[in-house]
Amino acid sequence: MDIRTRFAPSPTGYLHVGGARTALFNWLFARKLGGKLVLRIEDTDEKRNTPEARDAITEGLTWLGLDWDEGPDMGGPYGPYSQSERGDIYEKHLQKLQDAGHIYEDAGALRFRSPRQTVVVEDLVCGKIPFDMSNPGTHPDMTIRRPDGSWIFHFVNVVDDIEMRMTHVIRGEDHLSNTPKHIELYQALGATPPQFAHIPLILNKEGKKLSKRDGGSSLAYFIEEGYAPEAVTNYLCLLGWSPKDDREVLKLETIRELFDLGGVNRRNAIFDLDKCFWINGQHIIHMTPTRFMDLTLPFIEKAGIAYGDVSRLAPALAIVQPKVKHLSDVPEWIAFLFTEDFPIDPEASQKVLGKAGAKNRLEALAASLGALGEWNHSAIEAALKACASQLGAKVGELVHPARVAATGRQVGPGLYELLEVLGKDRACARLMKAAASAA
RNA sequence: GACCCUAUCGUCCAGCGGUUAGGACACCGCCCUUUCACGGCGGUGACACGGGUUCGAAUCCCGUUAGGGUCGCCA
Q1: How far apart are CA A121 and CA A22, in angstroms?
Q2: Scanning A50, A53, A110, A366, which has its CA 20 to 30 A from the CA of A130?
């Protein structure tokens, strides 16, 4: 059997992490089994749809590194892939239901008459669940078309899944209770329902469904804050799934190999930004310098850092990569290398340079660094330590003011490496300049 | 309210009848160290409750409680 899954978001607002994870699970499942992933835009509610939201979906998926085989952008054998363009198809299926006597009118809207039987949902994650649909009070007949002719989600969703030959429907658990209604529709349409897999929800810190107000609920947040896509997919897959051993920092390829729907949890997970942050740091540390540059360049460009040629960027990025946690922090971490007019943290300047004796120590350090024949981080380290012992000062008493003098900041790359990349002349000049204003 | 799902450290994830209940994040110590970070070592910290079944339950069953979800002419 050829596996076919789909991600079917509605373009209302941004792509949120819950949607991203649903897309991820569909992608993992399809890709692991050599199946197809379809992107379908569920834009039946015109009032709520925006073009921006449409773009956010495709851009978000692309950013995450998830590709799809059929969709509005590239078409496919079962298109069109936007529900707003599939009116004829819905008409056809509606006619079928009407001919079979499943439809009745109610105040101008059309409703589907439930067979009122027990429907068993067989779910790959949740197991076998019988739903007693016999009570119209608790399971009212669903509306499938509004008086204005527009379509309701349940109907078009099922029609499209039939028409697009979906074999597996992997979606949020919030749809579990809707599934028996969907199955009634499949049966009325004479179609075999796909395999269902309802994955647990992602909750915020308060245990409520993740909403716009929650930090990190939008994928845009992670893009802007400088998360690596592979870190986000890594974290997201860990919400409800695990490789069943102690591994947590995983490549997408590894996750794809290991992924198994049957191994997915049934309990909702609370989103923990701290852990996502940690995973991001892990991915940054371990990624190749090339990857680091690729991910970092947009932030550097945006910040307007005049780095000249990318060859000048490489050494700067090399000293930053092991320590930076947000890619968006990179520009301010490297700014000092590409201009003499870099911003100076006033608090650092006052606190560190204002400390008694700072002037002396900076001058002494400038002198001993200036006398250095070789200019590399180990030579610098040796010289600084020698200088410190000569002055009877702690190493840190030289390191801190030197860092502020050289970078204008208290945090950043390792001092010795940073001075090496800065170059001897510029380094010494900055030490002297800072000394002039130090206490 | 009815129906459905769920219930292991604060959080995420292991455990699927016999474990000193494990790992990670966070937190707290210590070490390394140039700050932050990274790394190393150690610590605090959990089987919601009550009944069963069993020689033996975190694991199986029932109930209670709690949380979440669905019950739309939203998706």
Answers
A1: 20
A2: A110
* Whether pLDDT at A208 is above 90: no
Q: Nearest to residue A430, comparing CAs of A338, A363, A356?
A: A363
Residue A351 DSSP label: I
A50 — pLDDT class (breaks 50, 70, 90): confident
DSSP-derived secondary structure for A271-294: --HHHHHHHHHHHHHHS-HHHHHH
Q: Which residue has the tokens 């890709």?
A: A31
CA of A97 to C1' of B73 (A): 19
Q: Which residue is nearest to nucleotide B69 (CA to C1')?
A: A174
Annotated catalytic residues of A are 212
Check pLDDT > 80 for residue A212. no
Backbone dihedral region for residue A260 (phi beyond 0: left; psi -120 to 50: alpha; all else: beta): beta
Nucleotides of B under 7 A from a protein CB: 1-8, 10-15, 22-26, 33-39, 67-75
Q: What is the ipTM of this complex?
A: 0.94
Binning pLDDT at 50, 70 and 90, where does residue A373 land? confident
Beta partners for residue A82, in sequence order: A41
Q: Is the pTM here over 0.90, yes or no?
A: yes
- Which residues is A269 bridged to in the sheet? A202
Using alpha carbons, list the distances in angstroms from residue A67 to A40, A74, A421.
13, 11, 39
